[in-house]
Write a structure and sequence with these properties.
Helix content is 44%, strand content 16%. The protein has 148 residues and is of the alpha+beta class.
């Protein structure tokens, strides 16, 4: 029985890797990484779903009748008007970048949600996001989210 639970817990639909980088340009990734740039952590699909779909009540891609990514992204961001920087992470399979000047605001948004969340998986994802923001702030860097 424990093996079945472990197998279910280990299944995930994707990862979104979080890089602390001075130049968070997805076009330059990975060749544009410098020696000081590094991967901080990653969000799992379960953490993303818990945070954005369960906790923040963003629309699920399946709830949008149009298969248009731009329409979905706009509706996702609209659901997060009070968290505009978090609203950029509308999908597990897109690149998302934050310039160094945006990292403090992203961190503050994460902390506001963290204080309100009751979902353990969402809280786990928020810890990773705050940690990545802290690393970026120390280094004067931005963040680049890279899908697997």
């Amino acid at each position: 029985m424990a093996e079945q639970v472990f197998a279910a817990d280990s299944f995930d639909n994707g990862r979104l890797y979080i890089y602390v980088t001075r130049d968070p340009d997805p076009v330059k990734f990975p060749n544009g990484l410098s020696n000081n740039d590094h991967m901080s952590s990653f969000l799992t699909g379960k953490e993303w779903e818990a945070l954005f779909l369960d906790e923040l009540k963003c629309p699920d891609r399946g709830s949008i009748s149009s298969g248009n990514s731009e329409v979905y992204g706009a509706r996702f961001a609209a659901a997060l008007r009070t968290y505009p920087l978090l609203g950029r992470i509308s999908d597990m399979y897109i690149y998302v970048c934050y310039e160094s000047e945006e990292v403090q605001q992203l961190r503050e948004e994460c902390l506001r949600v963290q204080r309100l969340t009751t979902n353990p998986k969402a809280a786990q994802g928020l810890v990773k996001l705050v940690q990545a923001c802290d690393e970026a702030l120390i280094n004067g860097s931005g963040l680049l989210f890279v899908p697997d």
